[in-house]
Amino acid sequence: MSISERLIQDIVLEFPNFRIVDKCHDGLSRAIDRALKIVTFGGQDGYLTVYHTVIGDTLYVPASWSGASDVERAIVLRHERVHLRQRRRYGLGLMAFLYLIPFFPVGLAYGRARIEWEAYAETLLATAELCGLAAARSPELRARIVRRFTGPDYGWMWPFGRQVMRWYDEALDRIANELEASRAAPHGEHAA
Ligand SMILES: [Zn+2]
Question: How far is residue 188's CA from residue 185's CA, in Å, rounded to a whole number?
């Protein structure tokens, strides 16, 4: 079984109603896409083609999902599992409030930025575990993720690039330490 298939099995054990829906053939996703294009003045135009979205127990996947590799899918699933757990932790109402209401005014959505940051820290950890620490440290990945916060992708949710880079560097340091610690630990340490 592939890494992503095993991960989907784990997620279903944790969230029995979990399912994956193709955005392109989904009316709700098309409506959200139209709304996002309006509120971001056309800046967010990849909702159907690039972005993965969790709503309730459903992961809505873009057109790129079918061509994604096993590892790419696994990294996305690890990120989205964080959102499923946040929803369980906060409840759907508070989660939607934190995520959507602070959308206005566009440009200062601290609640959404923190929710997304927790999930992107998992993206970095999954990248380090599945592709190696060098891949997690890639400047291209860093630029792409920082832009998610400071650019139109999520409505300029947290335009303070320096602060996002600090979160990023702290997460990378933590991940490097964790990986080093787990490598240094003798095998069977957790067997008991
Ligand atoms: Zn996310």
Answer: 9
Is 133 exposed, middle or buried, given 0-12, 13-18 or 19+ CB atoms closer than 10 A?
Answer: middle
Q: How many angstroms does the Cα of residue 57 sit away from the middle of ligand 1?
A: 14
Nearest Cα neighbor of 39 from 163, 184, 156 is: 156
- Compute CA 133 distance to the chain's CA centroid, rounded to the nearest angstrom: 18
How much distance in Å is there from the Cα of 148 to the middle of ligand 1? 10
Which helix (H) or strand (E) segment is 111 a member of?
Answer: helix 110-131
Spell out the residues 6+ positions from residue 152 whose beta carbon is closer than 8 angstroms to its own: 40, 41, 43, 44
- Beta carbons within 10 angstroms of residue 147's beta carbon: 13
The reported pLDDT for the residue numbered 32 is: 85
pTM for this prediction? 0.84
116 Cα: distance to centroid of ligand 1 (angstroms): 5
Q: Ligand 1 centroid vs 46 CA: distance in angstroms?
A: 14
> How many Å lie between the centroid of ligand 1 and the Cα of residue 184?
32
pLDDT (0 to 100) of residue 105: 53
Please list the ranges in the chain whose pLDDT falls under 50: 191-192
Closest CA to 46 of 31, 36, 60: 36
